[in-house]
Amino acid sequence: MESMTSSQPVDVALIGGGIMSATLASLISQLEPTWKVEIFERLGDVAQESSNPWNNAGTGHSALCELNYMPRAKDGSIEASKAVGINEQFQVSREYWSHLVEQGVLTDPNTFINATPHMTFVRGKDDVDYLKRRYELLKEQPLFEGIEYSEDPKVINKWAPLLMQKRRKEDLPFAATWQPAGTDVDFGSLTHQLFDAAGRSGARLRLNTEVRTLKKQNDGTWLVKYRQRVGRTPGQTRARFVFVGAGGWALKLLQKSGIPEIRGYGVFPISGQFLRTDNPKVVEQHDAKVYSQAAVGAPPMSVPHLDARMVDGNKSLLFGPYAGFSPKFLKNGHMWDLVTQVRPHNLIPMLAVAKDNPDLIKYLLGELMASKGKRFEALRDFMPTAQQKDWYLITAGQRAQVMKKDEKKGGVLQFGTEVISSADGSISGLLGASPGASTAVPIMLNILKRCFPGKSDEWESKLREMIPTFGTTLNDKPERADDVLDETSEALNIGR
């Protein structure tokens, strides 16, 4: 879309062309169709970083198979509240997507979401014991209805043949859980469709446009200065509200904004790679997302998993991720990103994180030094029949994990997402990674509530129309949970 500068401020400026900005643009177009919205993306198209389908595993994160949402405490105990909370958030996203499908805003739902069972597979006495206890807790939760558990090789082979074929008899016991109600989500397709719909509602998208600075004005608006990457033409826009959803670059822009709320924050970039196969003979044998247990010291995003993917109507399999290190905050970032984020206020938290996470550093060094053969061995350990000729390596998106101040430790490395907002609510940004994309709708709803408190009452009826369970929970209402799951599954054509 064409570039222009107006002396009149826009109502909302969105920085970053990923699923977060797309979701916020969609919500605003539904709630305030007369508002002027301007979107800035530094690349030539949207959804080219973490939202791109090949830059993530496409898991509709609902804690059906991801063990890191139910970690073992130091005393070995586990509890389900975080897993239930993640699932609750994903149901909000599903409800909103269902509404947009029913309204014709989104096209055929199977262009962005498909039914794909979620499975967890573990080996070793301790992990088998943990998985069984996890299953016993989750089977009582309405949102996890239908989950199954087995230690029987024949049953596990029925669920995921590629895990069991030609598996040699092992001394280690193994077990698996199976949940047929999982999904595979193409967040790239969803992002494109949401931005297209926002454009039809009047939002202006500026591609190849890099925001350089954010400065608060005396009248309370934000001066957004940018430069076009083609021709390097500068420009500026004023906005009443700014959202920074630019992945790792969100930190850089929030630092430039000068808001005190960003003090003490840093990000630690972790890159990743996947092995991918498109061979139909292999792909047709596997129709699930199978997660296992992370290696000691590995970040949660490095949990090994074998995923069925559906992108542009074509099915593939991914295995990984193989973690690595790059100082860039984005795949298309700068080599000096890690260094240029350093400020006096975040130096101590960053040093504390480095001191307290030697296992992570050791793990990343090991991954960087791993040979191609060693990486393939990890796949063969997961899938004994894998043939190297069928698989090739792809580079995934950069994940910028949050580092923040901590009174006791000086600084901590946080896995997940975190919203940073100014005290007056005029600017907000998102830092972090999983389960971000899957929970984009509730995250953006929270931003709207925090940054537009005077609109909450006015918007409530519309929000309840779009998301019937808005403001409530499902897991404590079994019959309602069952109805909502049925309704959204039918609307999204993903069965149950």
Describe the structure.
By secondary structure, the protein is an alpha+beta fold. It has a single domain (10-483), classed as FAD/NAD(P)-binding domain (3-Layer(bba) Sandwich). Helices cover 33% and strands 24% of the residues. The protein has 15 helices and 20 strands.
In brief, what are we looking at here?
With about 500 residues, the chain is an alpha+beta fold. Helices cover about 35% and strands about 25% of the residues.
**Can you tell me the overall shape?**
globular
Main CATH class: Alpha Beta
CATH superfamily: FAD/NAD(P)-binding domain
How large, in whole angstroms, is the Cα Rg?
Answer: 22 Å
- Uncertain segments: 1-5
* Beta-strand percentage range: 15-25%
Instruction: State the secondary-structure class.
Output: alpha+beta
**Share of residues in helices:** 25-40%
Kindly report the CATH topology. FAD/NAD(P)-binding domain
Helix and strand topology:
Elements: E1 10-15, H1 19-31, E2 37-40, H2 81-102, E3 113-115, E4 118-123, H3 125-138, E5 148-150, H4 153-159, H5 161-164, E6 174-179, E7 183-185, H6 187-200, E8 204-206, E9 209-216, E10 222-228, E11 234-244, H7 249-257, E12 266-277, H8 280-283, E13 289-291, E14 305-311, E15 314-324, H9 337-340, H10 344-356, H11 358-369, H12 372-382, E16 392-395, E17 399-406, E18 410-414, E19 417-421, E20 427-432, H13 440-451, H14 456-466, H15 478-491
Helix pairs in contact: 1-6, 1-13, 2-13, 2-15
From the structure above, extract its key features:
496 residues; alpha+beta; 8-stranded mixed sheet; disordered N terminus; tricarboxylic acid cycle; L-malate dehydrogenase (quinone) activity; MQO; FAD/NAD-bd_sf
